[in-house]
Amino acid sequence: MSTPDHGKSGQPVTMRDVAKAAGVSVATVSHVVNDKPGARIGDEARRRVQEVVAELGYRPNALAKTLSRGSSRFIGLVADAIATTPFAGQIIHGAQDEAWKHGFVLLVANTEGNAEVEDDAIAMMLEHQVRGILYSTWYHHEITVPEALRQTDAVLVDCFASGSGLPAIVPDEERGGRTATEELIAAGHRRIAFLNTITPSPAQTGRLAGYRAALEAAQIPSDDSLVFLAEPQQEGGYAATADVLASGATAVFCHNDRVAMGLYDGLRENGLRIPDDVAVIGFDNQDVIAAHLRPPLSTVALPHYELGAAGVRMLLGLEIPVETLRVECPPILRHSV
User: Fold this and answer.
1) CA 35 – CA 31 distance, rounded (Å)
2) What is the pLDDT of residues 316-326, one digit of tens each?
3) Which of 86, 170, 194, 216 ranks highest by number of CB atoms within 10 Å?
4) Beta strands of 163-226 (E only): which ranges?
5) CA 18 to CA 7: how far, in whole Å?
6) What is the pTM of this model?
Protein backbone atom coordinates (compact mmCIF):
# COMPACT_ATOMS: atom_id res chain seq x y z
CA MET A 1 0.00 0.00 0.00
CA SER A 2 1.42 3.41 -0.90
CA THR A 3 1.59 6.14 1.69
CA PRO A 4 -0.85 9.08 1.54
CA ASP A 5 0.19 12.21 -0.37
CA HIS A 6 1.38 15.12 1.74
CA GLY A 7 0.06 18.67 1.52
CA LYS A 8 1.82 21.96 2.05
CA SER A 9 1.91 21.39 5.81
CA GLY A 10 3.80 18.16 5.37
CA GLN A 11 0.90 16.23 6.93
CA PRO A 12 -0.85 13.41 5.02
CA VAL A 13 -3.84 14.64 3.03
CA THR A 14 -6.86 12.44 3.66
CA MET A 15 -10.23 12.14 2.03
CA ARG A 16 -11.70 13.69 5.17
CA ASP A 17 -9.50 16.79 4.62
CA VAL A 18 -10.86 17.12 1.09
CA ALA A 19 -14.46 16.68 2.28
CA LYS A 20 -14.06 19.37 4.97
CA ALA A 21 -12.49 21.86 2.58
CA ALA A 22 -15.09 21.24 -0.13
CA GLY A 23 -18.03 21.27 2.27
CA VAL A 24 -19.26 17.82 1.25
CA SER A 25 -19.41 14.34 2.78
CA VAL A 26 -16.56 11.85 2.69
CA ALA A 27 -18.81 9.60 0.60
CA THR A 28 -19.16 12.34 -2.03
CA VAL A 29 -15.39 12.77 -2.23
CA SER A 30 -14.97 9.02 -2.57
CA HIS A 31 -17.46 8.90 -5.44
CA VAL A 32 -15.75 11.77 -7.26
CA VAL A 33 -12.12 10.69 -6.93
CA ASN A 34 -12.98 7.10 -7.82
CA ASP A 35 -15.39 8.16 -10.59
CA LYS A 36 -17.96 5.74 -9.21
CA PRO A 37 -20.58 4.77 -11.83
CA GLY A 38 -24.16 5.78 -11.02
CA ALA A 39 -23.23 8.14 -8.19
CA ARG A 40 -25.69 11.05 -8.01
CA ILE A 41 -23.49 14.10 -7.50
CA GLY A 42 -24.34 17.61 -8.60
CA ASP A 43 -22.05 19.42 -11.02
CA GLU A 44 -21.25 22.13 -8.48
CA ALA A 45 -20.29 19.62 -5.74
CA ARG A 46 -18.18 17.64 -8.22
CA ARG A 47 -16.38 20.83 -9.31
CA ARG A 48 -15.64 21.86 -5.69
CA VAL A 49 -14.22 18.44 -4.88
CA GLN A 50 -12.01 18.44 -7.97
CA GLU A 51 -10.70 21.92 -7.17
CA VAL A 52 -9.86 20.98 -3.58
CA VAL A 53 -8.23 17.73 -4.71
CA ALA A 54 -5.99 19.77 -7.02
CA GLU A 55 -5.28 22.43 -4.40
CA LEU A 56 -4.36 20.00 -1.61
CA GLY A 57 -2.59 17.58 -3.88
CA TYR A 58 -4.69 14.62 -2.79
CA ARG A 59 -4.57 11.39 -4.76
CA PRO A 60 -6.14 8.05 -3.81
CA ASN A 61 -3.56 5.63 -2.52
CA ALA A 62 -2.89 2.31 -4.17
CA LEU A 63 -5.52 0.50 -2.11
CA ALA A 64 -8.22 2.99 -3.01
CA LYS A 65 -7.38 2.71 -6.69
CA THR A 66 -7.97 -1.02 -6.60
CA LEU A 67 -11.41 -0.38 -5.08
CA SER A 68 -12.62 2.20 -7.57
CA ARG A 69 -15.38 0.01 -8.94
CA GLY A 70 -17.07 -1.03 -5.72
CA SER A 71 -16.68 -1.96 -2.08
CA SER A 72 -13.69 -3.79 -0.65
CA ARG A 73 -13.38 -7.07 1.21
CA PHE A 74 -13.18 -5.11 4.46
CA ILE A 75 -15.84 -4.75 7.15
CA GLY A 76 -15.37 -1.97 9.69
CA LEU A 77 -16.03 -2.24 13.41
CA VAL A 78 -16.08 0.92 15.52
CA ALA A 79 -16.17 0.29 19.28
CA ASP A 80 -16.11 2.69 22.20
CA ALA A 81 -14.14 0.72 24.79
CA ILE A 82 -12.09 -2.21 23.51
CA ALA A 83 -9.35 -1.82 26.09
CA THR A 84 -11.48 -1.27 29.19
CA THR A 85 -14.00 -4.11 29.15
CA PRO A 86 -13.65 -7.89 28.95
CA PHE A 87 -16.69 -8.07 26.66
CA ALA A 88 -15.57 -6.02 23.64
CA GLY A 89 -12.95 -8.60 22.73
CA GLN A 90 -15.63 -11.27 22.48
CA ILE A 91 -17.71 -9.10 20.11
CA ILE A 92 -14.63 -8.53 17.95
CA HIS A 93 -13.78 -12.23 18.00
CA GLY A 94 -17.27 -13.21 16.86
CA ALA A 95 -17.35 -10.56 14.13
CA GLN A 96 -13.86 -11.45 12.94
CA ASP A 97 -14.59 -15.17 12.71
CA GLU A 98 -17.85 -14.57 10.82
CA ALA A 99 -16.27 -12.01 8.49
CA TRP A 100 -13.40 -14.35 7.66
CA LYS A 101 -15.84 -17.17 6.98
CA HIS A 102 -17.37 -15.07 4.19
CA GLY A 103 -14.12 -13.78 2.74
CA PHE A 104 -13.93 -10.44 4.56
CA VAL A 105 -11.34 -8.91 6.88
CA LEU A 106 -12.32 -6.83 9.91
CA LEU A 107 -10.93 -3.31 10.37
CA VAL A 108 -11.25 -2.37 14.06
CA ALA A 109 -11.14 1.09 15.60
CA ASN A 110 -11.24 1.82 19.34
CA THR A 111 -12.56 5.33 20.03
CA GLU A 112 -12.78 5.39 23.87
CA GLY A 113 -15.96 7.41 23.39
CA ASN A 114 -14.13 10.34 21.75
CA ALA A 115 -16.44 11.84 19.08
CA GLU A 116 -13.59 13.28 17.01
CA VAL A 117 -11.71 9.98 16.99
CA GLU A 118 -14.97 8.26 16.08
CA ASP A 119 -15.51 10.57 13.09
CA ASP A 120 -11.92 10.03 11.93
CA ALA A 121 -12.29 6.25 12.27
CA ILE A 122 -15.51 6.16 10.25
CA ALA A 123 -13.98 8.47 7.61
CA MET A 124 -10.96 6.18 7.31
CA MET A 125 -13.20 3.17 6.85
CA LEU A 126 -15.26 4.97 4.20
CA GLU A 127 -12.03 5.90 2.45
CA HIS A 128 -11.17 2.20 2.35
CA GLN A 129 -14.64 1.53 0.92
CA VAL A 130 -15.61 -0.99 3.57
CA ARG A 131 -18.58 -3.23 2.81
CA GLY A 132 -20.23 -1.68 5.85
CA ILE A 133 -19.62 -0.80 9.50
CA LEU A 134 -20.58 -2.46 12.76
CA TYR A 135 -20.99 0.19 15.48
CA SER A 136 -20.61 -1.32 18.94
CA THR A 137 -20.81 -0.11 22.53
CA TRP A 138 -19.46 -1.85 25.62
CA TYR A 139 -22.85 -2.14 27.28
CA HIS A 140 -26.42 -2.36 25.97
CA HIS A 141 -28.02 1.08 25.74
CA GLU A 142 -29.61 3.57 23.36
CA ILE A 143 -27.29 5.77 21.31
CA THR A 144 -27.37 8.73 18.96
CA VAL A 145 -26.17 7.57 15.56
CA PRO A 146 -23.08 9.44 14.29
CA GLU A 147 -23.98 11.25 11.06
CA ALA A 148 -20.97 9.79 9.25
CA LEU A 149 -22.33 6.30 9.87
CA ARG A 150 -25.25 7.00 7.54
CA GLN A 151 -22.91 7.16 4.55
CA THR A 152 -22.60 3.37 4.37
CA ASP A 153 -24.46 0.22 5.38
CA ALA A 154 -24.33 -0.06 9.15
CA VAL A 155 -25.50 -2.38 11.92
CA LEU A 156 -25.63 -1.47 15.63
CA VAL A 157 -24.18 -4.11 17.97
CA ASP A 158 -25.03 -4.18 21.70
CA CYS A 159 -26.81 -0.85 21.28
CA PHE A 160 -29.81 0.59 19.46
CA ALA A 161 -31.18 3.89 18.14
CA SER A 162 -34.98 4.09 18.10
CA GLY A 163 -36.37 5.44 14.84
CA SER A 164 -32.98 5.46 13.12
CA GLY A 165 -33.83 2.73 10.64
CA LEU A 166 -30.56 0.95 11.47
CA PRO A 167 -30.80 -2.71 12.48
CA ALA A 168 -29.68 -3.50 16.03
CA ILE A 169 -28.29 -6.74 17.47
CA VAL A 170 -28.79 -6.81 21.26
CA PRO A 171 -28.99 -9.32 24.13
CA ASP A 172 -32.46 -10.61 25.01
CA GLU A 173 -32.40 -9.12 28.50
CA GLU A 174 -35.93 -10.21 29.43
CA ARG A 175 -35.43 -13.78 28.31
CA GLY A 176 -32.13 -13.83 30.22
CA GLY A 177 -33.79 -12.61 33.41
CA ARG A 178 -36.44 -15.26 33.03
CA THR A 179 -33.79 -17.96 32.47
CA ALA A 180 -31.92 -17.01 35.65
CA THR A 181 -35.10 -17.07 37.75
CA GLU A 182 -36.26 -20.37 36.23
CA GLU A 183 -33.01 -22.02 37.33
CA LEU A 184 -33.71 -21.02 40.93
CA ILE A 185 -37.33 -22.18 40.68
CA ALA A 186 -36.21 -25.52 39.20
CA ALA A 187 -33.95 -25.97 42.25
CA GLY A 188 -37.04 -25.77 44.47
CA HIS A 189 -36.95 -22.15 45.60
CA ARG A 190 -40.10 -20.07 45.91
CA ARG A 191 -38.92 -17.07 47.91
CA ILE A 192 -36.50 -15.54 45.45
CA ALA A 193 -34.96 -12.09 45.82
CA PHE A 194 -33.71 -9.98 42.93
CA LEU A 195 -30.83 -7.51 43.36
CA ASN A 196 -31.40 -5.14 40.45
CA THR A 197 -29.16 -2.26 39.39
CA ILE A 198 -29.87 1.36 40.24
CA THR A 199 -28.75 2.37 36.73
CA PRO A 200 -31.58 2.92 34.19
CA SER A 201 -30.93 0.63 31.22
CA PRO A 202 -32.51 -2.09 29.08
CA ALA A 203 -30.81 -4.57 31.41
CA GLN A 204 -32.51 -3.04 34.46
CA THR A 205 -36.02 -3.18 33.00
CA GLY A 206 -35.60 -6.32 30.91
CA ARG A 207 -34.14 -8.57 33.61
CA LEU A 208 -36.78 -7.42 36.11
CA ALA A 209 -39.52 -8.21 33.59
CA GLY A 210 -38.03 -11.65 33.02
CA TYR A 211 -37.83 -12.31 36.78
CA ARG A 212 -41.50 -11.44 37.19
CA ALA A 213 -42.54 -13.47 34.14
CA ALA A 214 -40.80 -16.59 35.49
CA LEU A 215 -42.51 -16.23 38.87
CA GLU A 216 -45.90 -15.76 37.22
CA ALA A 217 -45.40 -18.81 34.98
CA ALA A 218 -44.57 -20.88 38.09
CA GLN A 219 -47.62 -19.44 39.91
CA ILE A 220 -45.41 -17.81 42.54
CA PRO A 221 -46.83 -14.47 43.69
CA SER A 222 -44.60 -11.55 42.74
CA ASP A 223 -43.49 -9.71 45.89
CA ASP A 224 -41.99 -6.26 45.41
CA SER A 225 -40.48 -6.46 48.89
CA LEU A 226 -38.05 -9.04 47.44
CA VAL A 227 -36.73 -6.66 44.76
CA PHE A 228 -33.80 -4.51 45.91
CA LEU A 229 -31.78 -1.86 44.12
CA ALA A 230 -28.02 -2.12 44.42
CA GLU A 231 -24.95 -0.40 43.02
CA PRO A 232 -23.83 -2.58 40.08
CA GLN A 233 -20.49 -3.42 41.69
CA GLN A 234 -19.22 -5.77 44.37
CA GLU A 235 -19.91 -3.17 47.06
CA GLY A 236 -23.57 -3.06 46.01
CA GLY A 237 -24.05 -6.78 46.56
CA TYR A 238 -22.26 -6.65 49.88
CA ALA A 239 -24.35 -3.70 51.09
CA ALA A 240 -27.59 -5.49 50.14
CA THR A 241 -26.82 -8.56 52.29
CA ALA A 242 -28.75 -7.33 55.33
CA ASP A 243 -31.88 -6.68 53.24
CA VAL A 244 -31.64 -10.12 51.66
CA LEU A 245 -31.35 -11.82 55.03
CA ALA A 246 -34.22 -9.79 56.49
CA SER A 247 -36.45 -10.76 53.55
CA GLY A 248 -36.21 -14.46 54.30
CA ALA A 249 -35.21 -15.23 50.69
CA THR A 250 -33.70 -18.66 50.10
CA ALA A 251 -32.33 -17.71 46.68
CA VAL A 252 -31.06 -14.52 45.03
CA PHE A 253 -30.87 -13.49 41.39
CA CYS A 254 -28.15 -10.82 41.07
CA HIS A 255 -28.14 -8.22 38.30
CA ASN A 256 -24.55 -9.09 37.43
CA ASP A 257 -21.65 -11.24 38.59
CA ARG A 258 -19.92 -8.39 40.43
CA VAL A 259 -23.02 -7.88 42.61
CA ALA A 260 -23.08 -11.64 43.25
CA MET A 261 -19.43 -11.54 44.32
CA GLY A 262 -20.26 -8.91 46.94
CA LEU A 263 -23.25 -10.91 48.15
CA TYR A 264 -20.97 -13.95 48.52
CA ASP A 265 -18.81 -11.93 50.93
CA GLY A 266 -21.81 -10.71 52.92
CA LEU A 267 -23.38 -14.15 53.25
CA ARG A 268 -20.07 -15.70 54.28
CA GLU A 269 -19.58 -13.06 56.99
CA ASN A 270 -22.99 -14.02 58.36
CA GLY A 271 -22.00 -17.68 58.56
CA LEU A 272 -24.18 -18.80 55.63
CA ARG A 273 -23.18 -21.34 53.00
CA ILE A 274 -23.86 -21.16 49.25
CA PRO A 275 -25.98 -22.90 48.02
CA ASP A 276 -26.93 -24.87 51.15
CA ASP A 277 -28.39 -21.86 52.98
CA VAL A 278 -28.88 -19.38 50.12
CA ALA A 279 -28.64 -20.09 46.39
CA VAL A 280 -27.16 -17.37 44.18
CA ILE A 281 -27.21 -16.83 40.41
CA GLY A 282 -25.55 -13.97 38.55
CA PHE A 283 -25.64 -12.47 35.07
CA ASP A 284 -22.94 -11.68 32.45
CA ASN A 285 -20.69 -14.76 32.86
CA GLN A 286 -17.69 -12.57 33.54
CA ASP A 287 -15.38 -15.56 33.64
CA VAL A 288 -12.64 -13.99 35.75
CA ILE A 289 -15.30 -13.68 38.50
CA ALA A 290 -17.89 -16.40 38.01
CA ALA A 291 -15.62 -19.38 37.39
CA HIS A 292 -13.28 -18.53 40.28
CA LEU A 293 -15.64 -17.80 43.17
CA ARG A 294 -16.03 -20.52 45.79
CA PRO A 295 -18.34 -22.17 44.99
CA PRO A 296 -18.15 -21.28 41.26
CA LEU A 297 -21.07 -19.01 40.37
CA SER A 298 -23.98 -20.14 38.23
CA THR A 299 -24.87 -17.29 35.90
CA VAL A 300 -26.45 -16.28 32.61
CA ALA A 301 -24.08 -15.33 29.80
CA LEU A 302 -24.21 -12.19 27.75
CA PRO A 303 -23.78 -13.54 24.21
CA HIS A 304 -21.08 -11.13 23.04
CA TYR A 305 -19.44 -13.49 20.56
CA GLU A 306 -22.78 -14.17 18.89
CA LEU A 307 -23.65 -10.45 18.87
CA GLY A 308 -20.55 -9.79 16.78
CA ALA A 309 -21.13 -12.75 14.48
CA ALA A 310 -24.82 -11.90 13.98
CA GLY A 311 -23.86 -8.29 13.23
CA VAL A 312 -21.69 -9.40 10.32
CA ARG A 313 -24.40 -11.73 9.02
CA MET A 314 -26.95 -8.90 9.19
CA LEU A 315 -24.58 -6.56 7.36
CA LEU A 316 -24.02 -9.13 4.61
CA GLY A 317 -27.74 -9.86 4.23
CA LEU A 318 -27.45 -13.37 5.70
CA GLU A 319 -29.93 -12.71 8.52
CA ILE A 320 -33.62 -12.01 8.03
CA PRO A 321 -33.75 -8.20 8.16
CA VAL A 322 -35.41 -6.95 11.35
CA GLU A 323 -35.25 -3.69 13.26
CA THR A 324 -34.04 -5.45 16.42
CA LEU A 325 -32.54 -8.93 16.64
CA ARG A 326 -32.50 -10.16 20.25
CA VAL A 327 -29.92 -12.85 20.93
CA GLU A 328 -30.53 -15.50 23.60
CA CYS A 329 -28.57 -15.30 26.86
CA PRO A 330 -27.76 -18.92 27.83
CA PRO A 331 -27.44 -20.24 31.41
CA ILE A 332 -23.98 -21.27 32.61
CA LEU A 333 -24.56 -23.66 35.49
CA ARG A 334 -21.86 -24.18 38.10
CA HIS A 335 -22.32 -24.84 41.82
CA SER A 336 -24.07 -21.89 43.49
CA VAL A 337 -27.66 -23.08 42.87
Assistant:
1) 6
2) 999 888 999 99
3) 194
4) 168-171, 192-197
5) 11
6) 0.79
